[in-house]
Specification:
about 190 residues, mainly alpha, 7 helices, Pre-rRNA-processing protein TSR2 homolog, Pre-rRNA_process_TSR2, rRNA processing
Length: about 190
Amino acid sequence: MLYDDFKPIVDLVLNNWTALQLAVEHGMGAPGGEKTAQLMSVYIARYCVENIVDQDDLTELLEDLMDEEFETVCHDDSPKEVASLLILFLSLLKEGRHDELRARIEAMPKCQKWLSEPMHDSVPPQCHGNPDDDSTSSSGDDDDDSPDAPRINGDAASSSHTNNDPEPMDEDVEPGWTVVRTRRKK
């Protein structure tokens, strides 16, 4: 019973956690980040309900989960803030202070509920072009006239296509890190 009441609260708090959302959107960690985040929410809710937790324990758990599952280290104290909220909401729930709990939840910033819903149905924000800017196109365009279109007849790539090739990654980058560069339009 307590788990069933607390799990949606955990989902709501994690939906508002920018570090987790960015880690999932940018594919940090193993493939299937959305599912991992959903399982993480279940695990956190069960951990809090089945154990006597304090803020330090929960903060450490959140930091470990972010590091192990998403290869992400948060230097902004957000795991501590998330832990603090979860502990507060759990204690209000256990004490039966539902009106105060509801008021605090309603005071939280409104956000898209990406964690509770399958993310594959929506396109991540970084893939959207500005609808007012005709020079921006999404990566999913099927415009065969573009220089990036695959050559079906095996013709050699034009010089404009060669200039659009991504630059090779620097060799001195630490293992596990990826260098991301913007493409320059000519």
